[in-house]
Amino acid sequence: TLDQATPIERQQVATKIDDLVAMTDKAKANGEKPEFFNLCDVSVPGTNLYCDGNLGIDRNDMPQFKGDARPGSPADKLPRDPRNGEVDTEEFFKEMLNKEGIKVSEPQAVPPDRLKATQKNLVGDKVAGMYKGLEENPNDPNLTAPIYVSNDGYVLDGHHRWAAIVAYNAKNPDKPIAMNVRVIDEPIKPLVKRSNEFADHIGIEKKAAKAGQGVPQQSPEKKK
């Protein structure tokens, strides 16, 4: 955890994300797509940051609850987010878990660095964009909304927001952000299988790990 890392190691984590922010900003200023960088290649010895001990699951094989709807699927009938055209099936996911007798906790705050990554890919410029957003507003509800975790401490959905908050806390140890989570009462391996079956049924397309996804889109009311 971050409290096990030295101040120098914490600064190294934050500096790497600052480098990614600069790289992303430069690429976009030049009209280019940022180079793909897998943040799982960054680690702090003796801690689980970022992906030490992950389950080796490719991002493309992880469940998605928000995303593009497959044409003709149940998700295709849901309203689209005007910012990106995506649909949100989280409420249906929670209903499915409830019907199957699997409890989901109310949102609770936990130290983010005590959670563990499930997937083996973290899109560097996406984390950098979210980190930059937290530096501008550490209370941004789009970045601090609860993520789903298993009862054995693995992130199910929300890896990039989790990684951005870890980086923010590494740079700002005097004013850390707590990670809001909903704990699903099931271990991660069967939970990933169950969640993928749900996403396939309802019709959310999976997202491959690729660059150019970095900066969260503004909500309509923030656009000029």
SSE topology:
Layout: H1 7-29, E1 66-67, E2 87-88, H2 90-99, E3 108-110, H3 124-136, H4 141-144, E4 147-150, E5 155-157, H5 159-171, E6 179-184, H6 188-202
Parallel strand pairs: 4-6
Antiparallel strand pairs: 1-2, 3-6, 4-5
Biggest β-sheet: strands ordered side by side in the sheet = 3-6-4-5
What's the shape? globular
Structural Rg = 17 Å
Helix content: 25-40%
Oligomeric organization of the protein chains: single chain
- In whole angstroms, the N-to-C terminal distance is 40 Å
Order of helices and strands: HEEHEHHEEHEH
Structural class by SSE content: alpha+beta
Number of strands: 6
Residue stretches low in confidence (pLDDT < 50, at least 5 long) are 209-224
Binned strand content: 5-15%
- Major β-sheet profile: 4 strands, mixed
**What is the overall number of helices?**
6
Mean pLDDT: 84
Question: Would you kindly provide a written description of the structure presented here, covering whatever features stand out?
Answer:
The chain is an alpha+beta fold. The protein contains six helices and six strands, in the order αββαβααββαβα. The longest helix has 23 residues, at 7-29. Mean pLDDT is 84; it is low at 209-224.
